[in-house]
């Protein structure tokens, strides 16, 4: 079992959003989904990751801007 991750630059600020998951269970989290939520949702689907939480490190817009829309696209994923 290994922890996998992919860093994805989002928004015009190119803020780093991270998708982190277990390669065995394929369950994971998304850290700081600042925007570009449709592209993030497509990548998550391509990777086959079952996102169980959206994690925010702090409240700046470039880190939280896409959180609620991404949660909705993923079926109501919990935000922490």
UniProtKB/TrEMBL annotation:
Designated name of the protein: Metallo-beta-lactamase
Keyword annotations: Hydrolase, Metal-binding, Zinc
Positions of the Metallo-beta-lactamase domain: 13-71
Highest taxon in the source lineage: Bacteria
Organism: Vibrio parahaemolyticus
A Pfam short name: Lactamase_B
Cofactor: Zn(2+)
Keyword Acetylation in record: no
Annotated Gene3D superfamilies: Ribonuclease Z/Hydroxyacylglutathione hydrolase-like
GO molecular function, one term: hydrolase activity
